[in-house]
Fold this protein.
Amino acid sequence: MLSTKHVLGIKYLTTADIQKILETAQQFKEVINRPIKKVPSLRDVTIANLFFENSTRTRISFELAEKRLSADVVNFSASSSSVKKGETLLDTVNNILSMKVDMVVMRHPSPGAHLFLSNHIDANIINAGDGTHEHPTQALLDAYSIRERLGSLDKKKILIVGDIKHSRVALSNIFCLQKLGAKVKVCGPPTLIPKHLPHLGVEVEYDLKKGLQWCDVANVLRIQLERQDIKYFPSLREYAHYFGVKKSILDELTHQIVIMHPGPINRGVEISSDVADSDHSIILNQVENGVAVRMAVLYLLAGQRN
Ligand code: CP
């Protein structure tokens, strides 16, 4: 059981909740590696996946997780819905819930959209990304993947590199990693580092090589051009020169580090192909672990309904 009815953000989860999710995910990882990957845990539970923003990994991962738990699944994409005709978020969700839906997985461009819904509806809500705010299941699968590779997160040094300002992955990772005892630094151009980060107990490093030399794990983030209303740096070429993670920099480090990326990758900008595809990289392990972690979240929330 979790201490909360919804997973709106890592901010609202206790350390015990996070540990429970990671332990449960371990069991589901064993399940999805069996020849028969399906269990009946969520039979007769209906889940709506509501995506008001584009997604590849998160949407497919949730749908697979739901189907492997034997849930009934409906998918909604804003681009082909009556949202285009002016229907509000609350009306859309209430109409879907009236068809006897039990749980809602939602991605929405507005920070706080899930918190708003949680004050108006009875179904369990899981945040699959709310604008620049939080992406809790990404942080949980990232924590699971680090723990799988390094054994534990306690006192591990994690560097988050890139567009911190526009990244929901960065904020959820900061909350999650700190709750699990890791040390977090961020690295990127000053224009892409929010000024409030020191208040969250996060150090800032502007020199990529120094940051990589400090860390055990580098989580490399995409530049979110679609969320940038002004130019934050002169060109992608210049960004890649100063903040792109390349093999030539990793070769100069005195120890080997683990490379992560939540996807989608912009090869040649924030990460070079010879790093993304190297033995240092656990990027595809992250994607694999996402299904088990999301199964754990769904299973633990559904358990509260009985
Ligand atoms: N990591 C992640 O959220 O990817 P998608 O946008 O493809 O879901």
Summary: The chain has two domains: 10-134+287-302, 136-285. The first helix runs from residue 15 to 32. DSSP finds eleven helices and nine strands in the chain.
